[in-house]
Amino acid sequence: MFDTKIAVLLRDDLASWQALNVTAFLVSGLPQELRGEPYVDADDVTYLSMFGQPVVVLQGDRDLLTKAHGRVLARNQLVSIFTADLFATGNDADNRAAVRKVHTQDLDLVGMAVHGRKNAVDKIVKGARMHP
After folding, report:
1. Residue 23 is inside which H or E element, if any?
2. Whole-angstrom Cα distance, residue 113 to residue 81?
3. Which end of the chain offers a freer environment for a tag, N or C, measured as fewer CB atoms within 10 Å?
4. Residue 29 pLDDT exceeds 90
5. Three-state SS letters, 59-109
6. 3-state percent breakdown (helix, strand, coil) of the chain, nearest 5
7. How far apart are CA 3 and CA 116, in angstroms?
8. Model confidence over 68-85: pLDDT tens digits?
9. Is the overall model pTM greater than 0.85, yes or no?
């Protein structure tokens, strides 16, 4: 149905509240162009637009996230990331500073979101399983 795919990959050792929080932050980084038209109910109340395609939420261990991160960079795909350090920050500026101070290979990734061609995204998240 869709030529592209939106995938969120979470580390499998997150608490439920962390997984939900990380997912929300990660998808907020995806491009505005992925959103459809606003929703309008029968009383003409307008609601915000959402993605025009499904989002698959997957999970894997730390090693899988590291491999997927390498794959996404090798394929030059845009990606949003969430690191363990971000659980200790309280605002966007501190979030960006926490990521900025860590070298790429040393990022303690707990989640990432990627959008791209289906086959490319499938290769990036290979080995992940559906989040329960």
Report:
1. helix 16-28
2. 7
3. N
4. yes
5. EECHHHHHHHHHHHHHCCCCEEEEEHHHHHCCCHHHHHHHHHCCCHHHCCE
6. 40, 25, 35
7. 8
8. 999 999 999 989 999 999
9. yes
Q: Tokens in use for 130?
A: 């559906």
CB 131 within 8 A of CB 19: yes
Q: What is the pLDDT of residue 10?
A: 98
* CB atoms near residue 113 (< 10 Å): 24
Token pair listed for 110:
């707990």
User: What is the pLDDT, as a whole number, of residue 38?
Assistant: 95
Q: Six-digit token pair at 97?
A: 């500073």
The Cα angle at residue 127 between residues 15 and 23, in degrees rounded to 5: 35
